[in-house]
């Protein structure tokens, strides 16, 4: 009896056929007939796999010594044939079959069939699904029909839903079809009649394996035929098997092999009449792949291959055809005879696919031993592998293939490649991290042709499917002339998509947000992203008229960042930017990407993906510097390295591509791997080459791919993909080769209209030949652009001529396009392309002087356009090329033109940091200039601190000398009284004019004076670091020139600093009036470059008028204005001042620490080391107050060494001031005194007023009074009184929130120092009360502590303890735990018996917890 959960195979066949009788038939064969259903067929495959697995496992056990594994298999005595099918049992899945249900009830359930399904066409498989077919790790992906990538290597393999998935899914939804849901099947002899089943001989010989394969083939015959028993002619007893080592048996079996193949034919040798016209149509439809000549050749190859009648019969039977018609026959007769019914006709009539019929035949063919066909099985594991392929990829390995779809075109190969699931998962992880708020960039590295772009495109489809936006661009080795072309193409694509959505709510929202974010500077960005002009409305004005070029470039970075921030904020998903071939990226594009990544706003919605050739990118490439800079800001970088396919993977890809099991393509894959080393691009081109040369061909007779290994090996195909591509291109028609070469001169991509213009101007046929090249898979025409399908194809086409010939062609193409670009609507894009070609040709390709002069002007025009786009690297290259095309006598023959080019080139060299080029250009101008005036522009350029970073004093002298020659002499020595007198005199002149008079004052027209104003402003920037005493003189000179000659774009800077001079002399509100005037002038004159600087000076004065915390918000606006104007220096110092004022105004120290950390990241991202020094010094002091460990802060010695190495007097002054402050707060008197002495020695007189002066005066006064009390030196008392008086002057005009408590505290300390105890007591209390009322917790704590010191000194111990306790509490509240701890120790020493109410400072964990809470609160706010 069969176990309750099992059923015999033959019973299962009957029941399963009944279950599936209404399902879709297999069909698809030439002969048709009573086709079985797909439901039944796929369930049968599950059973077949289970059986072959069982045998395979048994053989494995026997091989390692467990012979009992084979004892379970049925075996017969004598020469009788064991009926294996009788011993096969099928186990159904318990959850669907229903244990305990009677057979009749089960049959009733099975008979209730529902709608049929076709599993092959039902769904598509998940590319990430697991594989059981030997394709583990190699999954295949279905690409959308509309997706075409112009620079792909080889795309992903198509896939369909596996048959097992379909069976499982269908059985779960249709439980009435219980017999189709297979759990397993096995061959068991337990309990069988011993007369029927004898013990098998347990040896692991080849002959035993052949027997098992043969007997299993008979079971498969019955299984897949729907219960038909194998015909007697197929049944052969064990004695007929050929023994592998028995020569006599081999000889005797040769005739048997022939007899057997004959027996396979006797079922039906009739010929089916088929209209030969049908086959002729089929041949014509193959477009040359299967021509009549090819068909005849196939027949000839088939005949030649069959060296013996046995081998010929084996080949034909393995392919499902009879031997009728062999020999000399007419072609028409042969065409009919290929449709003859075959020896396994019964399976064909059931609709069983040809590949499955071939498998059964090749299993049964094992009886012939060494005389078996080449495709006969040698072990069961191969059977299992092939069965799994049929089940999991039926469209490729199970169905009868449509020969019309079997072609090796480039398009076909573009759909096939190994899918790198591990690498893809890593990229997905990086993207998901960015989505979740942990910014990360992903980089794909590998050699050319490895599949980097394909993997990136796969990630792009994943991003888009998850609601993101995927923008892409590709850098080019040749196509580098057009400024920012790659980024422009990527963002243009986004804008084009937005334009197509015009009128939609989303499009209107994004357009509105972009207009708001970009403002009037949007027009500058339109020059880079032309399509943006159709989205936003911007006023046409010269946004760069007042800007220096460094500000213009910084402004461009800002605008690109704002653009990405805006579109990402309006997107439901991430904005992903993919840039290919980063090894050829330009510096500006890399800098812009870095700027976007450094933006905290953009990071939340921006993901960057890049590809580069790891063997072609140098360590010093700007890209690596950008990566390091963003890593410092917390942006992780994930590098995914791609390797070539190994030999097994090449086999699997070939198997899938040729629709043949891996065992049949292994010999070919060995050759392919040897040649290509697994490089996907080389693989593709090699296969195409084999197919093109007829070495890998599609056999119409055999309906499959075949190849000639001997000819492939003897052909001597190249071992390098470049040579192979050159060979393929060399076989093309001449006009196609010319078109490809012409296209290659423009790089990997070029606009179609460029090629059309060349065709029209030069008379060469290009468009039609390129269409043929596209059919051959060399190029793609997409979105009005030609793309080479891979860089290596472009490189191969480009190298078809000599370097000298290429230069001449570049020049010809460039000159042909240049005139057109200037004549037709001033086509900037065409001009860049034309000039790029001309410059690739070089001066040696110029034919005459007139042509040379034209080229100089073309480059000059292109450079000016690039400057307008703020792309100064490209602009410099254009100007530099202009110079290279000039004649040796150009200064004499074309003086004005030469001077203009050299000046522009020098300005660009300055911005790009090319000091050497700047020096050479300057020397040439100075040497050849005809007048002093002609040297002014380049002298102004050379004064920049960027150029003279290590020669600031020389720069100052140069500026003073030039001003003298311009008639504006500045005094080299002067007294403080002289400066104060000049300030008062100028003030008196200006006070006679109303603000309206000044706002409507005449404009400056004298060019020499306008140049003098520019030099004065630049000189002011330089002297701030080395000679601050010059600042008031420069400011007064700017006001003087303005009042004499009119307003210039530099005048508002002079008025802003003049206001600061006035405020510093005591009239704060009067000074602020001039600062407001400067802001109004800036707005009226629309001066962008100086706006940040004017705002910064105005914000400094506001600190003396409004409460510190309120005034500090103005610095946020100041930074934004400076960034928008491209004034990086002003933006950096605004950030420094904002963090500093937040600390000095009493923000919790955890808040101040975070602000400083953010500020330092900002400064480092902008490369401003000097400003970073100031925040580092302040950070060090704050951490000392908090009590940070040594690992959390820089050591005192290292910090001091860093400051001294900077050679910056102002930084040294700040260092000693903060050192004094630390020592004062931590009660280290000796260090405080030493630092204070050095601070006052190096402190320069301040002529302008700044927010940090408030703290300097307060701490300076308190320290002075303290030192006086310790030393009794009158100097310190007098200095303390001066600080007190200065604070009172500010308090009289400023906000009580800022100055009242400070004045009280200084006054109390003054009384304490002069022993006026009665007065000191009440004033200390006023200082405490005022600080508390104005919420200055740090100064409240300080007032409590100083008062406690006073009361202790006057022996009022209880009051002193009370005030110490309050001070301790306030310091803890502020977060100054180290200071609180120091005070706690002091109290312990002074009051050892009175500490009952005083708690120790919090430990490290409590402080960290407090900091975390503060950060969470701020994030929530």
Poorly predicted sequence stretches spanning 5 or more consecutive residues: 28-33, 96-176, 190-204, 244-292, 302-343, 541-546, 1415-1421
Q: Compute the CA-based radius of gyration.
A: 44 Å
Mean pLDDT over all positions? 78
Number of strands: 13
Measured as a percent range, the helix fraction is: 55-70%
What is the terminal-to-terminal distance? 77 Å
Largest pleated sheet:
5 strands, parallel
Strand content: under 5%
Summed up, the helix count is 67
Shape: flat
Structural class: mainly alpha
Kindly report the spatial arrangement of strands forming the biggest sheet: 5-6-7-4-8
Description of the structure:
- Helices cover 61% and strands 5% of the residues.
- It is mainly α and 1421 residues long.
- β12 and β13 (785-788) form a beta hairpin.
- α32 (721-730) packs across α36 (791-798) and α46 (976-991) packs parallel to α49 (1030-1045).
- It is flat, with a radius of gyration of 44 Å.
């Amino acid at each position: 009896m069969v176990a309750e959960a099992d059923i015999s195979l033959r019973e299962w066949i009957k029941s399963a056929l009944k279950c599936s009788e209404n399902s879709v038939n297999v069909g698809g064969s030439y002969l048709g007939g009573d086709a079985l259903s797909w439901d039944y067929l796929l369930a049968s495959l599950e059973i077949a796999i289970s059986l072959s697995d069982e045998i395979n496992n048994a053989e494995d056990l026997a091989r390692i010594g467990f012979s009992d594994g084979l004892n379970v298999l049925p075996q017969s005595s004598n020469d009788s044939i064991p009926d294996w099918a009788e011993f096969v049992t099928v186990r159904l899945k318990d959850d669907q079959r229903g244990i305990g249900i009677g057979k009749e009830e089960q049959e009733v359930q099975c008979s209730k069939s529902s709608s049929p399904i076709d599993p092959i066409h039902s769904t598509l498989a998940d590319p990430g699904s697991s594989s059981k077919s030997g394709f583990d790790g190699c999954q295949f992906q279905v690409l959308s029909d509309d997706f075409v990538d112009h620079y792909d290597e080889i795309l992903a393999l198509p896939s369909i839903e596996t048959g097992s998935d379909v069976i499982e899914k269908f059985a779960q939804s249709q439980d009435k079809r219980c017999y189709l849901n297979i759990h397993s099947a096995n061959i068991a002899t337990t309990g069988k009649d011993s007369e029927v089943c004898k013990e098998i001989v347990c040896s692991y010989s080849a002959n035993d394996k052949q027997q098992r394969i043969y007997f299993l083939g008979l079971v498969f015959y019955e299984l897949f035929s729907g219960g038909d028993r194998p015909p007697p002619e197929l049944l052969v007893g064990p004695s007929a098997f050929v023994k592998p080592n028995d020569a006599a048996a081999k000889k005797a079996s040769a005739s048997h092999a022939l007899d057997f193949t004959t027996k396979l034919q006797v079922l039906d040798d009739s010929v089916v009449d088929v209209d030969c016209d049908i086959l002729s149509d089929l041949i014509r439809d193959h477009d040359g792949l299967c021509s009549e000549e090819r068909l005849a050749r196939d027949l000839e190859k088939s005949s030649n291959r069959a060296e013996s009648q046995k081998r010929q019969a084996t080949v034909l039977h393995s392919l499902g055809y009879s031997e009728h018609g062999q020999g000399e026959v007419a072609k028409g007769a042969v065409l009919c005879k290929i449709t003859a019914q075959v020896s396994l006709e019964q399976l064909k009539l059931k609709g069983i696919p040809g590949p499955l019929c071939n498998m059964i035949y090749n299993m049964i063919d094992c009886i012939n031993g060494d005389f078996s066909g080449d495709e006969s099985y040698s072990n069961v594991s191969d059977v299992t592998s092939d069965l799994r392929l049929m089940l999991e990829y039926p469209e490729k390995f199970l169905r009868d293939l449509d020969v019309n779809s079997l072609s090796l075109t480039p398009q076909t190969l573009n759909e096939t490649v190994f899918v790198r699931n591990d690498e893809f998962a890593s990229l997905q992880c990086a993207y998901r991290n960015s989505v979740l708020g942990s910014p990360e960039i992903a980089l794909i590295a590998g050699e050319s042709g490895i599949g980097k772009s394909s993997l990136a495109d796969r990630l792009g489809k994943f991003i888009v499917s998850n609601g993101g936006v995927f923008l892409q661009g590709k850098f080019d080795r040749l196509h580098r002339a057009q400024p920012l072309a790659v980024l422009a193409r990527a963002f243009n694509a986004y804008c084009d998509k937005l334009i197509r959505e015009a009128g939609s709510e989303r499009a209107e929202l994004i357009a509105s947000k972009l207009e708001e974010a970009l403002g009037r500077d949007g027009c500058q960005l339109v020059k880079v992203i032309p399509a943006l002009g159709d989205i936003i409305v911007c006023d046409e004005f010269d946004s760069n008229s007042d800007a220096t070029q460094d500000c213009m470039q910084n402004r461009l970075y800002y605008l690109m960042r704002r653009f990405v921030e805006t579109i990402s904020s309006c997107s439901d998903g991430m904005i992903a930017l993919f840039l290919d071939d980063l090894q050829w990226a330009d510096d500006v594009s890399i800098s812009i990407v870095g700027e976007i990544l450094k933006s905290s706003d953009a990071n939340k919605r921006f993901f960057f993906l890049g590809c580069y050739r790891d063997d072609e990118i140098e360590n010093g490439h700007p890209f690596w510097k950008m990566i390091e800079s963003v890593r410092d800001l917390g942006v992780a970088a994930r590098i995914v390295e791609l390797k070539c396919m190994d030999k097994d993977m090449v086999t699997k890809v070939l198997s899938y591509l040729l629709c043949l099991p891996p065992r049949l393509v292994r010999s070919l894959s060995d050759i392919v791997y040897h040649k290509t080393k697994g490089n996907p691009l080389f693989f593709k081109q090699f296969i195409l080459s084999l197919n093109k040369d007829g070495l890998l061909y599609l056999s119409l007779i055999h309906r499959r791919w075949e190849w000639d290994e001997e000819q492939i090996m003897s052909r001597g195909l190249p071992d390098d993909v470049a040579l192979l591509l050159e060979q393929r291109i060399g076989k093309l028609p001449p006009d196609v080769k010319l078109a490809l070469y012409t296209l290659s001169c423009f790089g990997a991509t070029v606009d179609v209209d460029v090629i059309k213009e060349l065709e029209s101007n030069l008379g060469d046929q290009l468009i039609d030949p390129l269409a043929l090249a596209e059919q051959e898979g060399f190029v793609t025409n997409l979105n009005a652009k030609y793309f080479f399908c891979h860089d290596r194809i472009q490189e191969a086409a480009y190298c078809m001529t000599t370097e000298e010939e290429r230069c001449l062609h570049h020049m010809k193409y460039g000159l042909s396009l240049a005139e057109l670009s200037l004549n037709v609507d001033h086509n900037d894009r065409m001009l860049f392309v034309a000039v790029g070609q001309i410059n690739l040709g070089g001066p040696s390709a110029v034919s005459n002087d007139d042509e040379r002069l034209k080229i100089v002007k073309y480059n000059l025009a292109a450079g000016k356009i690039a400057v307008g786009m703020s792309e100064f690297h490209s602009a410099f290259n254009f100007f530099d090329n202009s110079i290279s095309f000039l004649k040796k006598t150009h200064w004499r023959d074309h003086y004005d033109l030469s001077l203009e080019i050299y000046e522009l080139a020098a300005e660009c060299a300055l911005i790009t940091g090319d000091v050497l080029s700047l020096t050479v250009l300057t020397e040439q101008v100075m040497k050849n200039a005809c007048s002093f005036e002609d040297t002014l522009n380049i002298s102004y350029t050379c004064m920049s601190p960027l150029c003279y970073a290590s020669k600031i004093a020389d720069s100052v002298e140069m500026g003073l000398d030039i001003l003298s020659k311009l008639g504006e002499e500045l005094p080299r020595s002067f007294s403080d009284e002289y400066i104060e007198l000049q300030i008062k005199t100028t003030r008196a002149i200006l006070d006679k004019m109303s603000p309206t008079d000044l706002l409507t004052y005449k404009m400056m027209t004298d060019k020499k004076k306008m140049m003098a104003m520019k030099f004065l402003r630049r000189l002011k920037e330089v002297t701030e670091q080395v000679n601050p005493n010059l600042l008031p003189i420069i400011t007064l000179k700017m006001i003087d020139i303005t009042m004499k000659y009119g307003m210039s774009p530099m005048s508002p800077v002079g008025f802003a600093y003049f206001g600061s001079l006035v405020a510093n002399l005591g009239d704060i509100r009067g000074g602020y009036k001039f600062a407001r005037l400067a802001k109004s002038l800036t707005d009226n004159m629309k001066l962008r470059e100086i706006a940040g600087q004017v705002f910064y000076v105005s914000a400094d004065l506001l600190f003396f008028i409004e409460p510190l915390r309120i005034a500090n918000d103005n610095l946020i606006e100041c930074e934004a204005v400076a960034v928008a104007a491209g004034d990086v220096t002003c933006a950096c110092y605004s950030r420094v001042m904002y963090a500093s004022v937040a600390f000095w105004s009493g923000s919790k120290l955890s808040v101040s620490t975070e602000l400083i950390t953010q500020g330092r990241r900002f400064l480092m991202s902008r490369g401003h080391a000097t400003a970073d020094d100031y925040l580092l010094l302040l950070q060090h002091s704050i951490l000392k107050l908090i009590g940070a460990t040594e690992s959390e802060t820089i050591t005192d010695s290292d910090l001091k060494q860093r400051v001294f190495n900077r050679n910056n007097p102002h930084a040294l002054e700040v260092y000693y001031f903060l050192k004094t402050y630390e020592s004062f707060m931590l009660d280290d008197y000796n260090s405080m005194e030493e630092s204070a002495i050095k601070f006052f020695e190096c402190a320069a007189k301040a002529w302008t007023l700044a927010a940090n002066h408030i703290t300097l005066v307060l701490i300076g006064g308190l320290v002075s009074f303290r030192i006086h009390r310790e030393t009794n030196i009158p100097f310190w008392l007098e200095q303390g009184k001066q600080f007190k008086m200065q604070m009172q002057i500010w308090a009289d005009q400023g906000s009580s929130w800022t100055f009242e408590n400070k004045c009280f505290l200084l006054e109390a300390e003054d009384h304490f120092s002069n022993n006026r105890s009665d007065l000191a007591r009440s004033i200390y209390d006023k200082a405490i009360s005022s600080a508390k009322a104005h919420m200055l917790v740090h100064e409240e704590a300080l007032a409590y502590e100083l008062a406690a010191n006073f009361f202790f000194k006057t022996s009022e111990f209880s009051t002193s303890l009370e005030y110490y306790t309050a001070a301790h509490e306030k310091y803890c509240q502020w977060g100054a735990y180290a200071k609180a701890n120091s005070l706690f120790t002091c109290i312990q020493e002074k009051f050892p018996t009175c500490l009952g109410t005083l708690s120790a400072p919090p430990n490290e964990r409590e402080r960290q917890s407090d900091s975390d809470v503060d950060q969470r609160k701020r994030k929530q706010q």
